[in-house]
Amino acid sequence: MQENRAIFLDVNAGAPLHPEAHRALLPLVSPSSDDRALGNPSSAHRSGRRAHSLLDQARSNIAFALGAKPSEIIFTSSGSEAIQLGSRILFENAILSGKKLHWITTKVEHNATLELCDWVTSNGGRVDFIPLRPDGSPDASALEKLATPETTLVSLIWVNNETGIISPVEDALKILKTKAVPLFLDGAQAWGKIPFKLSNYAGVAGAAFSAHKIGGLAGTGILWISPSGEIQKAKKCLESSKCPAGTVLGRQERGFRGGTENLAGILAAGGAAKALYDSIESGEWSKKQELLSACRNRLQDRLLQEIPGSKVQGIKAPRNANTLNITFPGGSNWVENLDLENIAVSAGSACSSGVTRPSHVLTAMGLTVDQASATIRISLSDPLSDADLEFVVGRIAKVYSRVRT
Amino acid sequence: MVSSSPTFQKPGIKAPGQKVLVAFSGKLTRGDSLLVAALLKSQGYWVTAYHLRYGKWADSPEPDFPKMECLSEIPQDAVKKLCDALEIPLIVDNVQDEFSEKVLDRMIHEAMGSRQARPCVWCHQEIRLPRLLKKADELGIEKVATGHHAQISSDITGKSHRLKRSVNRNLDQTSELFQLSQVQLSRLILPLGAIAQPMLARLSQELNLGKVTGNRGEKDASAYQVTPECMTGDSRFFKYVEGKTAPSLRNPGVIRGIDGSVLGEHFGTYQFRVGDPLPGVILVQGQAFVIGIDHALNAVLAGPIEALKTSEILVQDVRWVVPVGGLGSQPCLVYSPPTGADKVPMVPQPAEFVTFENGAARVFLKTPSPDFTPGRPILFYDGDEVLGGGLVDRIHGF
Prior knowledge:
The complex is a heterodimer of chains A (405) and B (398).
Chain A: E1 7-8, H1 19-29, H2 46-66, E2 73-76, H3 79-96, E3 102-105, H4 111-114, H5 116-122, E4 126-129, H6 143-146, E5 153-157, H7 169-179, E6 183-186, E7 204-210, E8 221-225, H8 230-240, H9 263-282, H10 284-306, E9 311-312, E10 323-327, H11 334-340, E11 343-344, E12 346-347, E13 349-352, E14 355-358, H12 360-364, H13 369-373, E15 375-379, H14 386-403
Parallel strand pairs in A: 1-11, 3-4, 3-5, 5-6, 6-7
Antiparallel strand pairs in A: 2-8, 7-8, 9-10, 10-15, 12-15, 13-14
Helix pairs in contact in A: 1-9, 2-9, 3-8, 10-14
Chain B: E1 19-23, H1 32-42, E2 46-53, H2 76-86, E3 90-94, H3 96-112, H4 119-139, E4 143-145, E5 150-154, E6 161-165, H5 182-187, E7 188-189, H6 197-206, H7 209-212, H8 235-244, E8 253-256, E9 262-266, E10 277-283, E11 286-294, E12 299-303, E13 310-320, E14 330-335, E15 349-355, E16 361-369, E17 377-382, E18 385-394
Parallel strand pairs in B: 1-2, 1-4, 2-3, 4-7, 8-12
Antiparallel strand pairs in B: 5-6, 6-18, 8-9, 10-11, 11-12, 13-16, 13-18, 14-15, 14-17, 15-16, 17-18
Helix pairs in contact in B: 3-4
């Protein structure tokens, strides 16, 4: 067994740059290429047109991979910005129309969403949380009571970044349709990890995605706006009342998001999206998901077997194929420990002033500080070979034998 | 001069690729821990930083809690930034409760016995070094490193390890390490002890630490001469003791001279430590010192410095670096590390010692000295080598 092999099991934090993303960057970075894209996509000269054409191509690739139309895609600086931009347009329009804000979300959202709680309450609004079912997934049926026709927005994390739990989006949509309440999805961890076509989600007002989760560059977010949805309407209302909609004003991105586009990030995202689209079309993607799921399940079984008393978070809920969130019966500093063993994973807690703070997702799922400290998230980019899987299991068992108290 | 320690290699020389856990305060007054981390990394070690925080004792002490310089901390974000700049992982633990139990409670106990407590020795002995080694065990890391100015040398078998003073005598910190076992010494790397002082500054430059710290930690020559102010004789510390002990243990009484004459009054013997000067009390022979406490009479005994002079010392909790065998007395040098209150650093004094099996030793000084007062650590040296050490138990009447 090789001592110095390194295994990266943290793809949910950021996927390695996809070769197609790399290829898509070449016109921008290779100095000798005839294909070289110079200048600003907004410039009218030949170089600018070339840049603009590449940008449009990338937009199309991304739209295809999402099952949407290019005109529905707005580029932002991050998934977080996409979430906040989409939500803020609805909130600000409601405020402008003299309505009281009422926002419904869950406690297991990404921080980009939860950061808005204070914003909503400080603008006189009310925030309600959808409770979790015992399996850890949001209980959509609670929307029957929580949501009213006065509700401004419901926000859901489509696939949870920490646990891989898939939210019951269809159930939520069914209920919300009867009450005419818009739904916004944080799709950062859904893209490339579960099958969907946005064209089938006409009832959704908008969704946010992030390029570095599918093998693009970090710093590129995507806001999808449903052409007939509430965000589109709200934007029009805001514009007609000469009220700025969006965080950066400017004419780029249909006025949703000003500022020169992040050409490098968008081209890379386009490359990665094209690769994703091709593999979905060829059936490769589904095959890979099956293998990933089998690999995750075997890793899960082996760990439960090697370290009795471990608990898999969300094991009974619908989960995506690549994520495993597991709580061991003890120990702390798991990430550092496994880093020293050349295995990269994510933690279930953060440390501040030497005091461990469990992740808000695990807290919402009822874990104690100690349990959160003993929790790691494993997220696979590719199925592991048998030897690698056993290597990982062996190293985790070795660490556990050291840290158990 | 001591020859170069086996643990010191110049930067650029690739060492083992071995894992090491570095005790990392992140403080830039001297920047020792930063230098250790950077130096070991440059030698090819796989460095992980370990940082301890004292929680409320550093951040927002209770009212009346005296300022302890050693507890001052830089914000955790700043520690993280330094580690990020060095590209090393950081692990942080909080020792707030442990510090209270193993150091503060003992300080109160020692104050009630009027002994010259040395909390930093206990903190190293009971918290900092055991924590470092335990965390290394948890991480599966064999070697640990600190910025202590001391040297460890191993014999040719690699099984026997000796502790030596730093090549920079003025920086020597062997007094914080004498209690380590052979196994612990075998795991400890002290990269700074063998590097002469002018070279330390040059190394910082070579390793580009100015860039790492954003030049916040401009070192000046005086940084290497600071002895942290210890607060055990501080009036704020008395208030702290008062908040933690029953009033019946703190009765006022009188200060008596050797002849029984009453020289003054006191508000509790816990405010006095044997060996300290008695402010404002001058005897015919000169400045008066606390020479003892008569607990039966609740009296502080005062006398001239000669009354403190002793040539026999009973030492308890003795730990030997390398087991000391044989009956009869053996020659050595003895030394007690200075406190903030000491104006002049002590020099090692020639003595002989007899060791007992129960962890005690008796020391016979060649020249009577007033410096080895109860509660102080005492170290036995053979030249530059530390033979062992313990705590002074009694100086009179045993």
